Amino acid sequence: MESRAKTTFLESRLMPAERAAALLPSRGTIAASGFTTAYPKVIPAAYAQRVEVERARGREFAINLYTGASTGEALDGVLARSGAVRKRLPFQSTPAMRDRINSGEIEFVDMHLSHVATYIAHGILDPIDAAIIEAVDVTPDGRIYLTTSSGLSPTFVDCAREVFVELNEAYPAALKGYHDIYLPEPPPHGRPIHITSVDDRIGVPYVQCDPAKIRAVVRTSALDAAPDFREPDDVSLAIAEHVVEFILHEVAKGRIPPGLLPFQSGIGNVANAVLSCLARSDRIESVRMYTEVLQDSIFDLVDAGKLECASTSALTFSAAGLDRFLGEIEELRRTFVIRPQEISNNPEVIRRMGIISMNTALEVDIYGHVNSTNVMGSRMMNGIGGSGDFTRNAYISIFLSPSVAKGGAISAFVPMVSHVDHVEHSTQIVVSEYGLADLRGLGPVRRARLLIEKCAHPDYRGALAEYLDRALETAPGKHMPHDLGHAFDWHTRYLQTGTMRA
Ligand code: 0RQ
């Protein structure tokens, strides 16, 4: 009976990607699943083809594209190149999208990931005409079972006028049960979010949709473009070792309980190396993660028998990592939980659970302001993502950065950052391969001296100290002295000569 209902439901909705793409709007807002992984792939490709054909005939396309976080070439790449995207939010990392944002062709709204759902629900952002959601299953009563991320999909399904499902048959049905779908209640009388332990489940394993809104179901077996993680290099390993030493020091001081606090870890190779190092340390017995992305390094913790549980909004595995995950999908369900980003990045939960956040910076200034997004103050890299949600609310916020970039031509430690994402008030611990600066409880000038001594590359330390001394001499205020006429000399020198070195 149930299976007949399913067949009937699917028969009435199943169609090729081209037909589904033809039903999407040419103007308005398209929201898509995807938080590093689990973005739709075949409907966007068909839509991009349609855009090409119809634009040649003079039709105009202008869409806003919302997702949970970054996606891949199959969504951001093809749609950016199609010329249909006018506005993109809240995070991206695909070269084609990044280039068009930086050329001024696409308006990018770089947002805290925890804010997006509120902006949609309260009508601050344009309403969603169509949501395209990758799923492992969809039932006649409108239950949509998501694949490897949750992100904003529950909110998109809830708010969209129409829903398009990409039914991805590359994933086994055993993925069902990984998700814990629960959305915060609106203010002013919303109840607290009842997560007191990383592995608490408070919702249901599917996204409920009004079946009448499901306009199309398209079958696919296309996989996400898997990231490639490098073996940790010496710089990443040195950074990771400083972090582990610091955590153990805080435990010894009684500032972190012996069972540790849950960790959040950002994206990229350095973050991956830190988790691997936690797994290898014989002085760390168990780890809990309350984070937004899990990368391959989570398996180092699993193999070391140290992973108690991991809450995330996305599984972001390399091809080998995904194989391993699929091979152990039944056992890992006890350990992993995938949550909507309104929950994984929820400031109240992060603060209450005492998270230790670890994110990567592009550059840090002598007083601890952090730039995570805009290279040389203007060229967008990826976006702030969830780094602000975690940093601002963490019990301990850690920023990681190699001391130099581009073979030493750029110092990651500068007199004044060329763009600010995280202010000195939120930045507590800064780590480079040279050392760790604990900025907590220090005034600006002492912070500056410590950051220069512990974190800056030796080639740039002298020049940073000179800048600070000159600022102390010349600035009208000695609280956070700056030599404003020269604060950006290093950046302008790099732009003019290709190096920050004098
Ligand atoms: O460029 O590869 O062309 O040489 O930046 O740097 O060292 O590979 O580091 O991949 O971890 O990325 C901040 C971008 C770091 C990332 C950032 C150049 C460097 C290289 C990448 P090349 P690395 P990563 C959770 C948390 C914000 C969002 C966030 C990020 C490239 O971590 O997007 O934290 N963070 N989210 O050469 C110019 C500098 C530079 C520089 C490095 N000072 N100036 N270029 N580079 N420092 C996840 C989510 O929110 C979903």
Question: What would your notes on this structure say?
Answer:
With 502 residues, the chain is an alpha/beta fold. It is 34% helix and 20% strand. The chain is built from 18 helices and 26 strands. The strands form 7 sheets. Strands 1, 2, 3, 4, 5, 6, 7, 8 and 9 form a 9-stranded mixed beta sheet that branches. It has a 5-stranded mixed beta sheet with strand order 10-16-21-25-26, sandwiched between helices. Strand 22 and strand 23 form a beta hairpin. Helix 3 packs parallel to helix 4 and helix 4 runs parallel beside helix 5. The radius of gyration is 23 Å and the shape is globular. The N and C termini lie far apart (77 Å). The mean pLDDT is 96. The site of ligand 0RQ has 27 residues, from helix 9 and strand 16.
What descriptors fit this protein?
globular, nine-stranded mixed beta sheet, 34% helix, 18 helices, 502 residues, binds ligand 0RQ
Could you outline the blueprint of secondary structure elements for this entry?
Layout: H1 2-13, H2 17-22, E1 27-32, H3 42-56, E2 62-66, H4 73-82, E3 85-89, H5 95-102, E4 107-108, H6 116-121, E5 130-138, E6 143-146, H7 153-159, E7 162-168, E8 207-208, E9 214-220, H8 234-252, E10 263-265, H9 269-280, E11 287-290, E12 293-294, H10 298-303, E13 307-312, E14 314-315, H11 319-327, H12 329-332, E15 336-338, H13 341-344, H14 347-353, E16 356-360, E17 363-365, E18 370-371, E19 374-375, E20 379-380, H15 387-393, E21 396-400, E22 404-405, E23 410-411, E24 413-414, E25 429-432, E26 435-438, H16 444-454, H17 458-474, H18 489-497
Parallel strand pairs: 1-2, 1-5, 2-3, 3-4, 5-7, 7-9, 10-16, 11-13, 12-14, 13-15, 16-21, 17-24, 21-25
Antiparallel strand pairs: 5-6, 6-8, 17-18, 19-20, 22-23, 25-26
Helix pairs in contact: 3-4, 4-5, 8-9, 14-15, 16-17
Ligand 0RQ binds next to helix 9 and strand 16.
